[in-house]
Amino acid sequence: MQASAPPSKHLGFRDKSRLQCWAKLRGDNSALELSCEKKSRTVEVGAIKSLLHTPQQLQRVDGSAGITPEDFCVALHLSASGNCIPFFFGSLRDKNLFVLTVAKIRRDGPQSLLLS
Questions:
Q1: What is the per-residue pLDDT across 4-51, written as a single tens digit (0 to 9) for each?
Q2: Domain residue ranges in the chain
Q3: Highest taxon of the source (predicted)?
Q4: DSSP of 2-42, one letter per residue?
Q5: pTM of the model
Q6: 9-105 is a CATH 2.30.29.30 domain
Q7: DSSP, res 47
Q8: What pLDDT score was predicted for residue 100?
Q9: Is the Cβ–Cβ distance between 22 and 47 less than 8 Å?
């Protein structure tokens, strides 16, 4: 059995628009599979430089993402490009679950979420 990220969130774009999307862990927990409408992208957990989730950290994200203090937002800061992918969650609980899940995989490895 494996853990998975909360099912629905919104992905932010440069024009401040938001599109509903889904993020799920790949079967071996090594990557996030992001899906929005007909587009999808895989982000390897090892390609994430940092998870930006505190108000101070989120100030580093490009202002065009439209992040406000009231948002439950997490941005994936990517190592190779330096770009950020902002996710907007519907609740603090969902945001925290996402942060804890991805942080655990980054710290302890993909196998850390698998139950034996």
A1: 444 455 555 554 556 788 888 998 999 999 888 778 889 999 999 999
A2: 9-105
A3: Eukaryota
A4: -----S-EEEE-TTS-EEEEEEEE-TTSSEEEEEETTEEEE
A5: 0.79
A6: yes
A7: G
A8: 93
A9: no
